[in-house]
């Protein structure tokens, strides 16, 4: 199981959707680093219910930053379906944070693409509170967090890495 989440990596490195068209760019802080605690956040799911990152402690979490208008992001959806299938029944949570402004389009994409994992958005585009907190400047972007809430990888991780974290 040494498959790299290649679509995430390649899409991020080669054809990411960057926030370069911002007229009022957010004041980004420092991005989290591998080995540091993942910054906690609370953001609403499509039904308006809050999801709190720290409430997922005890689970391996993949935080996926994306948007329904980002073609490279849409190309990675199958990777998350595969990740979900591969580790079904294990303590793994995929949490997609959307940079969509149009929340109906976001909900429609989730529904039409059968994205059955957890989702959040605030409708603030590149000023999404979680994206700003994580200093996200291009999407797709993924952060792998272990059961203790520590960032273990950013963008480039393998299924073996996920397996190791699940077994810790």
Concise description?
This protein has five helices and nine strands; from the N terminus they run αββββαβαβαβββα.
CATH superfamily: Glutaredoxin
- Uncertain residue segments: 6-15
Cα distance spanning the termini: 17 Å
Query: How much of the sequence is in beta strands?
Result: 15-25%
The proportion of residues forming helix, as a percent range, comes to 25-40%
Write out key terms for the chains shown.
two-stranded antiparallel sheet, globular, 5 helices, 168 residues, Glutaredoxin, single chain, alpha/beta
SSE diagram, text form:
Layout: H1 6-15, E1 17-18, E2 42-44, E3 50-52, E4 60-66, H2 71-86, E5 92-98, H3 103-112, E6 118-121, H4 129-133, E7 138-139, E8 141-145, E9 151-154, H5 159-167
Parallel strand pairs: 4-5, 5-6
Antiparallel strand pairs: 1-7, 2-3, 4-8, 8-9
Helix pairs in contact: 1-2
């Amino acid at each position: 199981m040494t498959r790299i989440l290649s679509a995430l990596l390649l899409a991020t490195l080669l054809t990411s959707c960057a926030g370069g068209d911002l007229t009022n760019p957010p004041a980004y802080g420092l991005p989290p680093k591998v080995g540091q605690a993942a910054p906690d956040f609370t953001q609403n799911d499509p039904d308006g219910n809050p999801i709190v990152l720290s409430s997922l402690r005890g689970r391996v979490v993949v935080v996926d930053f994306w948007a329904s208008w980002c073609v490279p992001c849409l190309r990675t959806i199958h990777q998350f379906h595969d990740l979900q299938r591969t580790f079904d029944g294990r303590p793994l949570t995929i949490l997609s944070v959307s940079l969509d402004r149009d929340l109906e389009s976001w909900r429609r994409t989730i529904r039409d693409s059968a994205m059955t994992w957890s989702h959040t958005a605030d409708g603030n585009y590149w000023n999404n509170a979680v994206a700003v907190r994580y200093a996200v400047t291009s999407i797709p972007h993924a952060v792998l967090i272990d059961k203790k809430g520590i960032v273990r990888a950013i963008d480039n991780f393998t299924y073996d890495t996920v397996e190791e974290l699940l077994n810790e």
